[in-house]
Design goal:
The protein is α+β, with helices and mostly antiparallel strands. It is 30% helix and 35% strand. Strand 4 and strand 5 form a beta hairpin. The structure holds glutathione.
């Protein structure tokens, strides 16, 4: 847990941009669609548990610093006992099993009447042992098309994220995501 998340924190925002946008799987008080500035979302992280295995790691998303970019997702506010419960759960799901590290970033809600707030986000960095790094949309799609793990097929992970963006952020262009989706669908249909 980052040093600036005090144990007695009574309210905390947690920003999701991958599976957390469609399956947070922890209790929260409210959620908002919005974005964080200075990061781009990329399918550059490996997953040898949820959507792949040790021999055939799947590909899931992480954030890569890019001052010109922003990433859209969902922020969830946890309050009271939800703070400790969600952090305990996410520490296993994201850090222990997923290889992500947490940091605080500024989240900006889509509703411009609402204030920005600090949010906890989980990021897999390039020094992570299961980090896979850049590849072409075709190469990423080919890997996703053949991988499956404890929670299901890697293509489900891809399609649910693409569906989230189409439904909740239709104005946002995400060529990386949708080029991989198109390439993966061309392989499986
Ligand atoms: N940290 C990102 C990515 C989270 C993510 O996709 N983590 C993987 C762990 S490698 C996960 O929880 N997968 C669950 C699943 O695929 O059902 C987020 O905020 O959504």
């Amino acid at each position: 847990m980052p040093q600036d998340v005090l144990p007695e924190t009574s309210s905390l925002w947690i920003f999701g941009y991958g599976s957390l946008v469609w399956n947070p799987d922890f209790s929260y008080s409210r959620s908002k669609v919005g974005h964080i500035q200075g990061y781009k979302r990329r399918f550059w992280h490996g997953d040898n548990f949820y959507r792949g295995d040790k021999d055939t790691p799947g590909r899931v998303v992480t954030l890569v610093e890019d001052l010109e970019a922003c990433t859209w997702g969902v922020a969830y506010e946890v309050t009271g006992s939800q703070v400790e419960e969600s952090l305990k759960y996410l520490n296993v799901r994201e850090a222990t099993r997923g290889g992500y590290v947490s940091k605080m970033v500024e989240f900006t809600p889509r509703d411009q009447d609402e204030d920005a707030s600090l949010a906890l986000v989980y990021i897999a960095t390039s020094d992570n042992p299961i980090y896979l790094g850049p590849a072409s949309p075709a190469e990423i799609a080919a890997q996703i098309a053949i991988c499956r793990g404890h929670t299901g097929h890697n293509i489900e992970y891809l399609l649910r994220l693409a569906d989230f963006m189409r439904m909740y952020c239709p104005e946002v262009e995400d060529d990386h995501l949708f080029s991989i989706e198109a390439a993966a669908l061309a392989l499986v249909i």
